[in-house]
Each structure stands twice: as structure tokens, then as C-alpha cells.
Amino acid sequence: MQTIIANNYHVFFNEKGYQYLSEILVPKDYSKIFILVDENTSNHCLPKFLSMLSTEVEIEIIELEAGEENKNIETCLQIWHSLTELGGDRKSIILNLGGGVITDIGGFIACTFKRGIDFINIPTTLLSMVDASIGGKNGVDLGNLKNQIGIIREPKAVIIDTLFLETLPGNQMRSGFAEMLKHGLIFDREYWNKLKNVSSLNTNDLNSLIHESVEIKNKIVSEDITENGIRKSLNFGHTLGHAIESYFLENTEKQSLLHGEAIAIGMILEGFISKEKGLLTDEEYQELKYVISDIYDPIEFNEVDIKNCIDLLIYDKKNEFGTIQFALLNGIGKIKINEQSSNELIFKAFENYKS
């Protein structure tokens, strides 16, 4: 797969990524390499990665507990202390080997340690390959509120090794696939059409579709790195999806949802809002709802659940002047940003989802 050129970095695929690492990780440029992993990537991905890594620079491993609930400032404090105790300095580099939690928190750590050191993202989940590792967003959650604390700063590089996907369970693959579906819905009707028949896709198809998804996100981010315009289109499904994800994360009576599982629901809900506002035809909405519902299990919401999810919208990081901002579909493959919706319409969207 061809290397993708972003604003200030490159996205390398498979063996080209390891070639790049061997060229830049040299003692004259870096004093120490820190590899940030969680317990899952430590077991399933780190041995392969280390076998492919060729460098004379000293390596230290920092391992975290897995899970979104650990993407917080308390974990950052632990990592900052570890970096200090292990002799990290301004010429150190952090390699973030893991899923979206690792690339999000690892980038944030690198941006803030010693006022900023280099970092490279090596995503190991489908979600982090097509979304979290691309575009320079780094940060942590504030309690159960998603991505409230962070900074936009691009990595030195992103290295995507699709063989890591062989270590993933099905629910993690589906979680990442939700972001690929979103890319088609907001940007490219033809790409969406390729994704619709997911059961017929083989490994070669998936590699090609991952590359195309990264290209789509990179095109959008390259036009608007600070999210003042077109980059807001990437928030389709995320305004309500993040609220749902946060609610299920904090509610001990609910089973936590993976990011993509929550975003899948969010896309159906926000697709309905798009239809009700006259931006999406009923035929397009039914197509969206059918495709997504065929991939993801339904989640039950009662009236209390819906009210609590709506209440969480006030904390959405995309809000401006106290107004909740939606990115809505303006037909499949097109988007309209800075849209509003009444609570009544949001509640109606939930009722339609339940049906």
C-alpha cells in the first residue's frame, strides 16, 4: 500500500513502516525509546513489534491497564512519573503501540512531557488505524466525559501494520468498522457502497478499504487541522454517540459499549435527525439504518436512559456558545455542519431507533 502524506508527517503501511523506524531511531537523534502499551498489546503485539524493530537506542516499556476507563489524568500522572524515573529527556521518543486509548493518551503524554517530545503512533486495532491515530488529536477523558482535556499536535509518523488485526476479537473489528462506515456516509457514496456488503469482504479488500479510509480522513483533516470548518464533518454520529458511550461507561447497571458500538447508534440517531430536517431522503435513511443495524446488536433504552443521554450533550466538546452542534448528512456522501436539533427531535430519534 502506498504511503499517505499528511500535513507534517507520513502514514506508512506494513514493511515500509519498519524501514522508516530503522532509519530514524538512531543514537544521534534519540536518547531513549519508550514504548507505551496496554496489557493486551503487551501480550499480543509487542513481541512481533520488537522482533521487527532494529535500533541501537535503549528501549523501555511502559504498560497500562486496558480500557477507556483508564484514559484519564491519573494515568497520565503515573506515566509522567515513569518517564522521569526511567531517565526520559527531551530527546526521548514515545512509540504508542495500541488502540485508540493508547494513541490518544500516548500522544497527550508526549505533547506535555518536557514541554513536548516526539511520538509515533503504531495502531493495533481497526479503530485506531482508520481514526484515532490519524489527525493529531491527543487527549484524555474528564471523569466519564469523553476527550475533554487534550491538544492537537501531529505525530512524527503513523505506522499501520494490518497483521496486528489478526489479534482482534470480532467486536473490536466491528467497533473500528463503524468509523469506516462514517467516512463513506460523510464523504464518498462510492466508498459507502463498497462497505455495505461487509460479509463478502476478504483480507485484500479490507487492506484496500483501510487505506481508502485513512485517505478520506487525511483529506478532511489536511484542510482543517484545528476543526474550525470541514473537520467537524468527522463528528457525524459522535454528538449522540459520545453521550451514549459516556452514559454507559458511568452507569454500573449498564454494560459498557465500545466506541464504535456507541457511534453506530449515534449514526442511526443522527441519520434520523438528518431525515426529519429534510437533508436525507427516507430511502437513504432506511438504507443507512438497515446496513448499520445488520452489523451491530440493538441496545435497549428506556425513557430515563434517553433523558440522561440528552442531559450529557451539554458537555460535548463541540458545543459553541452553549449551543449543541451536530454534523448531519446532506444525502449519503455529503455533510452539513453546525446544525441544531431540539430535544423533542432527539427523543423522537431514540424512539425510532427502538422500533
Task: Describe what is shown at a glance.
This protein has helices at 15-24, 39-44, 46-52, 73-85, 100-112, 126-132, 170-187, 189-196, 203-223, 238-250, 259-276, 282-295, 303-312, 343-354; strands at 4-5, 10-13, 32-38, 59-64, 92-98, 118-123, 137-142, 145-152, 157-160, 326-329, 335-339. It has 355 residues and is of the alpha/beta class.
Give a topology summary.
Blueprint: E1 4-5, E2 10-13, H1 15-24, E3 32-38, H2 39-44, H3 46-52, E4 59-64, H4 73-85, E5 92-98, H5 100-112, E6 118-123, H6 126-132, E7 137-142, E8 145-152, E9 157-160, H7 170-187, H8 189-196, H9 203-223, H10 238-250, H11 259-276, H12 282-295, H13 303-312, E10 326-329, E11 335-339, H14 343-354
Parallel strand pairs: 2-9, 3-4, 3-5, 5-6, 6-9
Antiparallel strand pairs: 1-2, 7-8, 10-11
Describe the structure.
The structure is a single chain. By secondary structure, this protein is an alpha/beta fold. The protein has two domains: 4-167, Rossmann fold, CATH 3.40.50; 170-354, Dehydroquinate synthase-like - alpha domain (Dehydroquinate synthase-like, alpha domain), CATH 1.20.1090.10. 48% of the residues lie in helices and 17% in strands. The protein has 14 helices and eleven strands. The chain has a seven-stranded mixed beta sheet, with helices on both faces. Strands 7-8 form a two-stranded antiparallel ribbon. It has a two-stranded antiparallel ribbon with strand order 10-11. The radius of gyration is 20 Å and the shape is globular.
Note the main attributes of this structure.
alpha/beta, globular, 355 residues, 7-stranded mixed beta sheet, two-stranded antiparallel sheet, Rossmann fold, 48% helix, Dehydroquinate synthase-like, alpha domain, 2 domains, nucleotide-binding, cobalt
